[in-house]
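Record 1 of the preview.
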Amino acid sequence: DPQAYQPQGELARPTPPAYPRDLVGYGRVLPDPKWPGGARVAVQFVINYEEGSENCILDGDAESEKLLSEIVGAPAYQGQRHMNIESLYEYGSRAGFWRLHRLFTERHMPCTVYACALALERNPEAAQAMVEADWEIASHGYRWLDYQNIDEATEREHIRLCVEIQQKVVGSRPLGIYQGKPNVNTLKLVAEEGGFLYNSDTYADDLPYWNMSYGKPLLMIPYTLDNNDMRFSQALEGDRFFTYLKDAFDVLWEEGATQPKMMSIGLHCRIVGRPGRSLGLAKFLDYVKAKEQTWVCKRIDICNHWYKYHKPCTSAKL
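->
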């Protein structure tokens, strides 16, 4: 519990009033994450694998997909297929994924995949390539849906399905989960499932933290919506993405001389997998790879590190 964190030798932290949200976190003096090799920054790349699990009436949905494509402000077609949206998504699984696969494997750089189970099941060749590359395959839920108004029983079943399908397709269950568009029940259901080591449905910090609200500690590894290609999907060049990522990394690396942190980068096969955007990502991969005191890792590596060096407690110093 970050609010219970007390830095060694520091003045006692004042107790905030009771409130369901944690607006305080670790406070002014952060814990030392003790990254391997004394790294200043733990850098983690996520490839979101969603294509084939989005809204589509072929899968019994009421409307077509409308989000995160080349068509800005695309309307959802009620009861009809949106052929342009479908083919834009298909580019991600057919071509964009393989471009990202080459960018990472040629540089021998690790990454985590947030895989929607239905999308993974529909492209076993891509799933096999993820395993062969020794990428972590974390869950992005069963489908790429907005769970805000989906009832608890249905979401529970979808979480069960995402574990079952991934086990069948790649031979192992996911240990991390990022539902992506969660609701107030999501974290409870993740904890209830019992097999996840971490959840990433949070953007609340620069370091992992423990959530103590669900009967047993649940490790939260924050994700990102700013270091994310979704914000640059309408850019006509990759330099904007590269510049933003470089600026974010440089700030964190300088701060890391005294307060090391983590940096997540979110990628989508149908967005940064396009040729004109992929160059910006390639430049950033090379920039980070050449930077000393930088730990490029998978999210499960951060998870295992936190379990080893920062066990959950409510009173002991981290």
